[in-house]
Amino acid sequence: MVPAEYVGLWRRRGIWRSNGSSDLTTQVWWFQAERYHIDLRIPVGRVGINGFAGETVVEGERCTWHPAIAYPAISGELDAGWMRFDDADHVHETGLDNSYEEDWYREPSGAMHGMRLQDPHSDQLAYLLISDNWMAWACGSPSGACEITVYRSEQQQWIAIASNLATTMPATALNKKDALQWQPGQLVEVPMTPRATWRV
User: Fold this and answer.
1) 165 with 150, same domain?
2) Digit-coded pLDDT (tens) for 14-69
3) Range of the domain at 137
4) Source organism's superkingdom (predicted)?
């Protein structure tokens, strides 16, 4: 389990690299639950998003992200940094090799809950991170690309606001209260993948 101060939805303010380059325009969203994360990047002027999902491990001030699925593909590079909380809503990340600095700020989201699901008939994995106002869904194969969609709650309906899919399945039938009652080993249906059953 990650420390409680990590849990929530984070937005990146910017990245500054040791080679002198920086990026203040790419939208980077980091959904973090007690164990799992979904991270996505939306470059300005591009349709679709890149991202990954998996497990987060925090050891002291070191945070390591272990992606299990990704789009366009899982990178072989270690994804880890030293984290410094300036206050409850701002965290500064420094690359282990000092190759970059990133500033993150907390987006109001309420408690973030996360779960990992698996297709009982294949190697397909899925991650669902959900709060009162936000939801992120990622599914795919560890050996292939994954699908990632972010939803925001508007008038008690989930509206897709970013996705790497040309069309997204509605999530209006997904009830947060019901999802939080899923138990490990239970087979469930998820509106984003109709006609598919997942094991929690």
Assistant:
1) yes
2) 999 999 999 999 999 999 999 999 999 987 766 567 899 999 999 999 999 999 99
3) 113-199
4) Bacteria
Same-domain pairing of 29 and 72: yes
Query: Do 145 and 102 sit in the same domain of this protein?
Result: no
Amino acid at 2: V
Q: Is the pTM of this model over 0.85?
A: yes
Residue 160 contacts residue 151 (beta carbons within 8 Å) = yes
